[in-house]
Amino acid sequence: MPPISTPPEIRAIHIKGRSPIAWMASSPDLQFDPSRIPKEAVAQVPEGYTIRPLNVNDYDKGYLELLSQLTTIGTISKRKFAERFDLLRERNESKYCIVIEDLGRGIIVGAGSVIIEPKFVHECGMVGHIEDIVVDNSARGKNLGKLIINALTLVAKHSGAYKVILSCAEKNVGFYEKCGLKAKEVTMANYL
């Protein structure tokens, strides 16, 4: 039997005897270069899942349905999704959208993003704003949420951020404390 050849745009990473995690290096379908996700975050991925940048094809893998478990999405066509994806890809040094895919089902079961904000304070430091953390109801209890927070925190750290911050519902404070965050100050909003 001839060996299976892997297309040049895909490389597999084997971690502790687990199933390979496929990355598409420098693919125009990915929101950012997957090497920006630190290896220590990738090493935490359970068997049967992969963590990677958002892919333009995730529209067909239930990404918006997953986000609708978090908040209102509205009607977003595939074209509108692709246009927004292109905008995010152009700004890939300031916003990183990470997803967790269930490889067996071929669907997105976890997601989150971090926005890197340049500041004047802290000697022109950077702050990571963690946003839109969600894990599918069917995949809860597997520490995927904690994995997403850790991955986004490491992306922010490797981008030069001196801290990460987020806003959450009061009912979720306990979860975020388990992820290493601490309650500080108050978030306020003015919906326009």
Automatic annotation (TrEMBL):
<dbReference type="InterPro" id="IPR016181">
    <property type="entry name" value="Acyl_CoA_acyltransferase"/>
</dbReference>
<keyword id="KW-0472">Membrane</keyword>
<dbReference type="InterPro" id="IPR039143">
    <property type="entry name" value="GNPNAT1-like"/>
</dbReference>
<keyword id="KW-0256">Endoplasmic reticulum</keyword>
<protein>
    <recommendedName>
        <fullName>Glucosamine 6-phosphate N-acetyltransferase</fullName>
        <ecNumber>2.3.1.4</ecNumber>
    </recommendedName>
</protein>
<comment type="pathway">
    <text>Nucleotide-sugar biosynthesis; UDP-N-acetyl-alpha-D-glucosamine biosynthesis; N-acetyl-alpha-D-glucosamine 1-phosphate from alpha-D-glucosamine 6-phosphate (route I): step 1/2.</text>
</comment>
<feature type="domain" description="N-acetyltransferase">
    <location>
        <begin position="49"/>
        <end position="192"/>
    </location>
</feature>
<keyword id="KW-0012">Acyltransferase</keyword>
<dbReference type="GO" id="GO:0006048">
    <property type="term" value="P:UDP-N-acetylglucosamine biosynthetic process"/>
</dbReference>
<comment type="similarity">
    <text>Belongs to the acetyltransferase family. GNA1 subfamily.</text>
</comment>
<dbReference type="Pfam" id="PF00583">
    <property type="entry name" value="Acetyltransf_1"/>
</dbReference>
<comment type="subunit">
    <text>Homodimer.</text>
</comment>
<keyword id="KW-0808">Transferase</keyword>
<dbReference type="GO" id="GO:0005789">
    <property type="term" value="C:endoplasmic reticulum membrane"/>
</dbReference>
<dbReference type="GO" id="GO:0004343">
    <property type="term" value="F:glucosamine 6-phosphate N-acetyltransferase activity"/>
</dbReference>
<dbReference type="InterPro" id="IPR000182">
    <property type="entry name" value="GNAT_dom"/>
</dbReference>
